[in-house]
């Protein structure tokens, strides 16, 4: 398998799907459509859509039109969270991925509304998975298809919300302090802020392809470990990498006196954690007895990345 | 019918439903739960849940547990829109209904997140309508139930989003100017900002109770007229009422040089419009050939209110 070539193909496909589901820039409310599209089409790595699509394939999902609304929806949710994160009252960032942030280009009010618009539009878009083929007449088939989409919608909501990503954002913003069970809180932030959407992506892929509850639980666990390992690797790179390799400032956690896995456990223990979580994730993968070499390599590269 | 007594009963029931679906204030992310609950339990008139419930009854809806998730969800969406509206970058309001606004009590970052949290939680809550009675085995019945909930979810998303409420907010914030087809834009704002959620409320009530497409279309039209009449009545009261009756400053549109139905058409024409829209709405109601005296009176009072 030529991983890079395979990946380029997939990214191209995913970009097309996302673009197809974004609103047309017309009508009296044109500005918000522009702001939404600007936010989503800012050149992200599309990690979540990719994990969703590959988990769908892992479980034998063939009809891509069924999962496409969710592929677009998960990226809209990821994008809105960045737009709101960048607002002056939050992280107050003027640049993201080398471009001006949404509220800098469109103003703060439109930044808030574009974020709201994307979050809402994610659920509208996911609803398109409810559309069943009207030629189908067997009510058991119809029921199964809509039931799986409903389950996927439920997971999307839970993992994106106050018991998922937004919840993690709250704990992060309130800050973690040494006197205050810091490792437990840090785990909570990483689990909710990063793992939750990865769990949603992989679980939705699995469920729409017909995975049963036991399989979905293994996938959830696997995704949780991937997200956590990814985040700890982030802490490590901030200490061990260089600005040239990483493309962003290093030692920023130290400067901001931020509590991380490295400051709490030291660099060696942090590396051990990443290794342990990776092994757990891959063991979960193997226990499914299903084959998707590309997905396995993707997971490996996500965690052991050097930037 | 003793309208006031009936209304008190319904409000009590709706308050209970809303409270039951709000999050418990516990866990590391406790603050956002507090901020969400503070925002929703701020003493609104619960107009949208009321219209939803009564339209459900109008079409013979009996099992209230089926519609309760949507009753809570529509009010969460209405509440989040107020929380974000009040933010410094938007209307910058410190008080609402005599209480400090959410961002004043919890800070601006938490105001943004609480709004996001409520919007997301609305969809999570609505997903609860997908839970079908597990004793049910007939797949046609199962399919019908989940299909109606999916349709309701779709409407909730559309009417709340960029083609509905949020879209209206965008046009409103960008401002309406005399050189710029002002009546058309004003209609767009009123239709999206106010009517859209009323349409969602009444359509969801109708659809979950089993209304067919033609009936749902009549309900949508009726709700659009109610929303528009309600909003024009708002313009009129700003000119004709007193601060004592209205409980808020009058002549604020004039002070803010705001374009309204009254400034565009004059007070008499504006009143004629309200009358005409009311008649249309009631004619729609009558054409359904269904009886709900309370709902009819509620609609009448909503439009012809004096405050």
UniProtKB/TrEMBL annotation, chains A, B:
UniProt cofactor(s): Mg(2+)
Metal-binding listed as a keyword: yes
Protein name: Farnesyl diphosphate synthase
NCBIfam families per record: FPPsyn
E.C. designation(s): 2.5.1.10
Claim: Transferase is one of the keywords in the record: yes
Keyword list, A-Z: Isoprene biosynthesis, Magnesium, Metal-binding, Transferase
Gene Ontology CC, one term: cytoplasm
């Amino acid at each position: 398998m030529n991983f890079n070539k395979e990946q380029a193909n997939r990214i191209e496909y995913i970009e097309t799907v996302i673009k197809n589901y974004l609103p047309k820039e017309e009508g009296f409310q044109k500005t918000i459509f522009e702001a939404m599209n600007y936010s989503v089409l800012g050149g992200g790595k599309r990690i979540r859509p990719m994990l969703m699509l590959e988990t769908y394939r892992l479980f034998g999902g063939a009809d891509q039109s069924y999962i496409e609304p969710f592929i677009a929806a998960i990226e809209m949710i990821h994008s809105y969270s960045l737009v709101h994160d960048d607002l002056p009252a939050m992280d107050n960032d003027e640049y993201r991925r080398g471009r001006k942030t949404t509220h800098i280009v469109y103003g703060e009010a439109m930044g808030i509304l574009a974020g709201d618009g994307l979050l809402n539009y994610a659920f509208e878009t996911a609803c398109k998975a409810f559309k069943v083929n009207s030629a189908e007449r067997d009510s058991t088939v119809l029921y199964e298809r809509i039931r799986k989409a409903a389950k996927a919608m439920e997971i999307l909501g839970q993992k994106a919300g106050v018991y998922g990503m937004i919840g993690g954002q709250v704990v992060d913003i309130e800050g973690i302090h040494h006197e205050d069970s810091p490792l437990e809180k840090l785990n909570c932030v990483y689990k909710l802020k990063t793992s939750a959407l990865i769990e949603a992506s992989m679980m939705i892929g699995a469920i729409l392809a017909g995975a049963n509850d036991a399989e979905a639980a293994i996938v959830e666990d696997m995704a949780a470990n991937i997200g956590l390992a990814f985040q700890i690797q982030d802490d490590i790179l901030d200490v061990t990498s260089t600005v040239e390799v990483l493309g962003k400032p290093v030692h920023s956690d130290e400067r901001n006196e931020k509590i991380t896995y490295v400051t709490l456990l030291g660099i060696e223990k942090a590396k051990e954690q990443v290794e342990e979580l990776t092994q757990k994730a891959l063991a979960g993968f193997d226990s499914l007895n299903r084959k998707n070499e590309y997905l396995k390599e993707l997971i490996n590269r996500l965690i052991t990345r050097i930037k």
